[in-house]
Amino acid sequence: MEDATAQRTGGIAAGSTIRPGEAAHFGALAADWWDPKGSSAMLHRLNPVRLRFVRQAIDAHWGGDVRDRAPLAGKSALDVGCGAGLLAEPLARLGAEVTGVDAAPENVAAAAAHSEGSGLDIRYIAGEVAALDIGSFDLVTALEVIEHVADKPAFLRALAERLAPGGLMILSTPNRTPQSRLLMVGAAETIGLIPRGTHHWEDFVTPEELGGMLADLGLEPVERRGIAFSPARGLHLSSDCSLNYILSVRRS
CA separation (Å) from 93 to 98, 118, 219? Predict the structure, then answer.
């Protein structure tokens, strides 16, 4: 355990939240990111569920019409830990001016190539979000990211600093429970649904821990939903947060 932790955390620069080992792990998957049957297949299954929550949160926060095809028109969005753009591209299609930031240059390259091929104008940047002079944004998202960073309070602070007045932040992450250890780290990685080494259960964050860190930054919860799994429904939004959860927050 200690050797594995040192391998993925070694070489962290002072003040950085990026774990080089984590960035390298995801960067190695970049070329395969958009293949729904490849190494990111689980993300492709998860993404529609996350997007359902994101759209509902956007409409609730800005009083939008569910029939509006571009509820983010005139607004800016920052997606941190953007990978190859699975969330950034839908946000652009919802009308936002989108910036995606990722620790892995390979992911940023894959994201830029895919968005260009899709006719979407998205700005992608590789690096540490806290070190980037990119201004503030109406919407800030970081989905399935905080469990991979070295300093979680510092990471959240960097996100909060980029949230514009009146803005909305959306986060998602696995919960640290026996269920997530069994299903997300044990079963899913063993049978190949998730690449081995993707998750480290001790880095998962409980809703109470995340809520406390957000409160320290002056951010208050708006809504929280679980992302659960059942054989009949697959992945779906639920009141059960034992496996994974997604939440929206705003300034108090």
Answer: 10, 10, 27
Q: Which two tokens stand for residue 52?
A: 């359902």
Q: What is the pLDDT of residues 65-118, one digit of tens each?
A: 888 999 999 999 999 999 999 999 999 999 999 999 999 999 999 999 999 999
Q: Domains in the chain, please, with CATH?
A: 2-247 (3.40.50.150)
Find the helix packing angle between 207-216 and 152-161, rounded to 10°. 50
Q: Indicate the pairing of strand 244-251 with strand 219-230.
A: antiparallel
pTM of the full predicted structure? 0.90
* Structure-model confidence comparison of residues 229 and 55, the more confident one: 55
Question: What's residue 20's pLDDT?
Answer: 83
Beta bridge partners of 220: 250
Per-residue 3-state assignment (H helix, E strand, C coil) for the chain: CHHHHHHHHCCCCCCCCCCHHHHHHHHCCHHHCCCCCCCCHHHHHHHHHHHHHHHHHHHHHHCCCCCCCCCCCCCEEEEECCCCCCCHHHHHHCCCEEEEEECCHHHHHHHHHHHHHCCCCCEEEECCHHHCCCCCEEEEEEECCHHHCCCHHHHHHHHHHCEEEEEEEEEEEECCCHHHHHHHHHHHHHCCCCCCCCCCHHHCCCHHHHHHHHHHCCEEEEEEEEEEEECCCEEEEECCCCCEEEEEEEEC
Q: How many CB atoms lie within 10 A of CB 193?
A: 15
